[in-house]
Structures are given as structure tokens and as C-alpha cells.
Design brief:
By secondary structure, this protein is of the alpha/beta class. The protein contains 8 helices and 7 strands. It has one domain: NAD(P)-binding Rossmann-like Domain (Rossmann fold). Helix 1 links the parallel strand 1 and strand 2.
């Protein structure tokens, strides 16, 4: 039987890269987003085990319904990748309160609540994998990303404690911390800052979407059966 993995924010960018990699590794993947992107629709043409479920992950009250919908439509869920989130930048002193609330709701509350309802079936099955997407900003800090960094740091605490709660049931819980790659943290950077960040890394380059997707794929696999409660940094040695 093919194991099913849910990838939130799976319609584009890093989420889509993770979803495609997991399908190629033999998983059935349900990508969740508000709407299906052209890139996801194109990918699904060649990857029959890549599915799409439209949902607003910011609507916290409906997340239990999403978990039920996924189980009813696709059966038992083996893996969950908490990838969806936003990278709204702005110094705290001038960041509007509604933006602070949005960052916390989408980057932290939503993945925690969704995990709450999906992990229940994993506990019954006594098997499962949970991977949450953090960031190097969670531990290094970056100007203009204080609230974003706080949400990503909180995910690390969530990961470590949840790993203790469900470990005896055969469920692993880990996080991946990407560096500056071609995602929400770099789309506003011009070529010069990107080059500066690359030069500061041990490998003198930026990590790629594929690098991060491969890390998630590893944590989902049986090769990582005894790895839990930890964070895997993928940043080409930028924080080395």
C-alpha cells in the first residue's frame, strides 16, 4: 500500500518541490493550498500520485474538517509536511498588528492545529512522520524578520516536545531549517545581497529547493526511522 503524505502550501515554490520529490520517492502526496497553481496543474499531468485539495489554512476553525476530509478521501495519513506560511517582512516598530496576527496564525497556529488532528490517526496506526518547515532565521535572526523568526523558532519548540509525546507510538517529528533559497525570504532581494549571502556560506553558494526537498524526503523515509525531535539545517553552510 502506498503511504500518503500531506504537504501544505504545496502549490508552488518549496512546497511544490517537496511534493514532487516525495511522489518520485513512491508516496501519494496531497498538496494543499487555497487554489491550484499552473505549476501544480502541470506537475500533476506527469505525476498521477500527486493530488490537490483546495483549502484555506488560515481558517483555523475549519482545520478539523480538513483532517476529516483528507481521511475520508485518501485514507490513513502517514506523513505531514507543515510547509505553508508567509514571509511578511517589516521592522517590529512599524509592522501593523494585523500583519503580526497573520504571521502567527498562518506560520504557527495553523500547523499546530492541523497537526493535532492529523496526528490522531497516526497514533492509532502507531506510525507516522511529521516534518515542519522552520528557517535559519529562527536561530540566527535577521533584520526585518523578528515576528517571522519568532514563529519559526516556536515551531522548533513544538517539534521537540511533540516528538516526546508521540515517539513511543512510532511517530517521528522533525523540522527542516532552510537558509536563503529562492523562496519567500529572497524574492525581494536583488542580485547583490544574494551574492553576499552566498559568499558568506561555507560552500559559497545558496541552497536550492531541491536540496530542501531531499532533506524532507530523507526524514519521511525509513532511513530516518530513529531520527526525531531534531532540526536539519539546509543552508550550504551559511550558519557554519
Amino acid at each position: 500500500m502506498t503511504d500518503t503524505v500531506v504537504v501544505t502550501g504545496g502549490s508552488r515554490g518549496l512546497g511544490l518541490g517537496v511534493a514532487e520529490t516525495l511522489v518520485r520517492s513512491g508516496f501519494k502526496v496531497i498538496a494543499i493550498a487555497r487554489s491550484e497553481s499552473a505549476a501544480l496543474a502541470e506537475a500533476r499531468k506527469s505525476l498521477p500520485e500527486l493530488h490537490f485539495q483546495a483549502w484555506d489554512l488560515g481558517d483555523i476553525a475549519r482545520l478539523p474538517e480538513l483532517a476529516r476530509t483528507l481521511r475520508d478521501s485518501y485514507g490513513a495519513i502517514y506523513g505531514l509536511v507543515n510547509n505553508a506560511g508567509i514571509g511578511t517582512a517589516g521592522v517590529l516598530a512599524t509592522l501593523p498588528e494585523d500583519k503580526i496576527e497573520e504571521l502567527v496564525r498562518l506560520n504557527l497556529t495553523s500547523p499546530m492545529v492541523l497537526t493535532k488532528y492529523i496526528v490522531r490517526s497516526m497514533m492509532t496506526r502507531r506510525a507516522g512522520r511529521i516534518v515542519s518547515m522552520s528557517s535559519i532565521v529562527a536561530t540566527t535572526g535577521y533584520r526585518g524578520l523578528s515576528v517571522y523568526g519568532a514563529t519559526k523558532a516556536a515551531l522548533l519548540g513544538f517539534t521537540r516536545s511533540l516528538a516526546r509525546e508521540v515517539g513511543e507510538l512510532g511517530i517521528t517529528v522533525n523540522a527542516v531549517a532552510p537558509g536563503f533559497i529562492a523562496t519567500e525570504l529572497t524574492h525581494d532581494l536583488d542580485e547583490t545581497p544574494r551574492e553576499q549571502i552566498a559568499r558568506r556560506s561555507a560552500l559559497k553558494k545558496l541552497a536550492s529547493v531541491e536540496d530542501v526537498a531531499n532533506a524532507v524526503d530523507y526524514l519521511m523515509s525509513m532511513r530516518a526511522a530513529n531520527i526525531t525531535g531534531t532540526v536539519l539545517t539546509v543552508d550550504a553552510g551559511g550558519t557554519a
